[in-house]
Structures are given as structure tokens and as C-alpha cells.
Amino acid sequence: MIVNASSLIATHKTFRALFLASFDAFTPAWMRHAMTVPTQTETMVHNWLGRVGAMKEWVDTKVVDELRGFDYTVKSKDWENTLGVFRKHMEDDLLGLYNPRIADLGQRAKQHPDQLLSGLRTTNGLCYDGQNFYDTDHAEGDSGSQANTISGTGVTAATIRADWFSARKALRKFKDDKGEPFVLNLANQDAVAVIPADLEAVFDEVNNPGPGATFPKTTIHYVIDPRLTDVNDWYTDFVGAPVKPFLYQTRKPINFVSLDNPNTSEIAFDRALYKYGVEGRYVMAYGLWQFSVRITNT
Q: Got the DSSP string for 219-266?
């Protein structure tokens, strides 16, 4: 293969097509658990977090509800992943060696927010009310003290089923600053368990009890997060509302880029190396703690 402007353009098109095909074909898990929030600035203040008040009787003048003043600032981050392609491999018609890696580049880029979301769960950082996302004493306005982390009763099929209903009950009982429930309708598919790989067999048993089981079949919608490090702890997210437990703030969407012009690229001239990769500006952050419950087992 002769490496010139035309062949480099063709290589770029081929790699970009491979990247996009892999990127589009992969379905990440985060889209059910996080709400996409575009932004035009590097940082964004999410002071809308909380809850809109309930309807009230209109007597004389309207009563205007104001935001409670939460100052939750989220800053987008820059991300990249870059692959180097040597010119000699182009000249020797060895570009096929790179095709799987370009495809993998697309899949890794698409699932990166999943990785960030897993990190938010395990690190349990501060959310909009200034407390840890999973905590025992969230409170705002007339809500009273509320806990979205509960102690589990074990990791057998029977105890998992009992804890599943405990988590659903907690989601139904969370109140906003006016003392009104956050979750008004909780269909079975609106609650999704997020579990470590170690609990897959138990959750499958709950959904498919064996002969002679003493409890009825209960379908639990669940996803497996292989990044969860505690083998006994799991989570239940309410995903049946426009607002989600987590926020995916995006300043610049993921994009395929290249540095492959031998006339303007210093590295192409010095090392006969061309670069192809992906970049973006985004971040995963905490949304509504009222829409996620952690179940811990010692």
C-alpha cells in the first residue's frame, strides 16, 4: 500500500466506520439509570434538584414555590482514548490487525459512562443535599429523616425477595420537602436491581424458583454490574420517571478524531506514527437519592 493523502483519507473513513458501527451496536446500562443533561458551559449548577410542590387550591393569588437553593455544581471532565498506527503497517497492508482494536475503541467509549456510574455507587460521594448519596438521615423541609441505605437480611433467594420488597417500600415512602411522596406510581418494571456478578445465581433463583419452593415466583428486573466489588451488597433504582437517580452531564459528545496528516503532524514525521482515537467532555454525577436504595449485607 502506498501511503499518501488518498490512502490516509480512505484509512480514516474505514476506521471511523468501524468505530461508529461498534459504538452504535453496543447498548450500555447507564441510560436507564441516568438522565442526560446537556450543558453549554464547563460547569453547571443543578439547583433544580429536589421536587416540585403538589397542586394546591387557588385562593385569591397564586402561591409561588421557589427552588430550595441547593447549590450542586457539577464540572464536566475531558476524556480520551488514542490508538497509534505505524506507517510501516500501512505500507505492508497490515491494517487488518487494527480493525478489532478500532472496534473495541468504539465499545469502550460507549460503555465508559457505565464505568463512571459504578464508581459513583461504590465511592458513595456527596450529592445535592451535601450528604453522602446513600445515607441514613437525608432530610429537607417537611420530609423528616429518611434513609436510602438499609440492612439486608441475607443473600438467599428468600431473603433477597424480602429485601427487594423492603427496597420497593422505601422508594414508595420517600417524601419531598412538602411531605409528599416522591414515587407516586411504581410498576414492577420501574424498579431495577443492580447486582454484583456474585449474586446472579440467587436472583435467577428468585425469578425461577425450583420445585417445592415455599415462596411464589416474583420477577425482579435486574442488571449485573461486574464492577461492583462488594459481593453481598446490591442496589434498587427507580427508573420510571423523567428524572433519574444519576445525571449524565455532557458538554461535548464522544467523537472520533485522528492525527494523520504527514505534512502537519510532527509525530507522523518523526516516528512514522498516525493517531486515531476518541474524545469527549462529560461527567456522571448524582441525581435524586430518593430514586435509589442500597441494600447492605455483612
A: ---EEE-TT---SS-EEEEE-SSSS-SEEEEEEEEEEEEEE--TTT-H
pLDDT digits (tens, 9 = 90+) for 125-157: 999 999 999 999 999 888 999 999 999 999 999
Quick one: pLDDT at residue 85? Answer: 81
Our CA dihedral for 34, 36, 40, 41, rounded to 10 degrees, sits at 0
Query: Which fold, 5-53+64-125+245-289?
Result: Major capsid protein gp5 fold (3.30.2400)
- Cα–chain-centroid distance for residue 294? 16
**Residue reference for cell 447492605:** 296
pLDDT at residue 265 above 60? no
Cell reading at 111:
460503555
Q: How far apart are CA 105 and CA 155, in angstroms?
A: 37
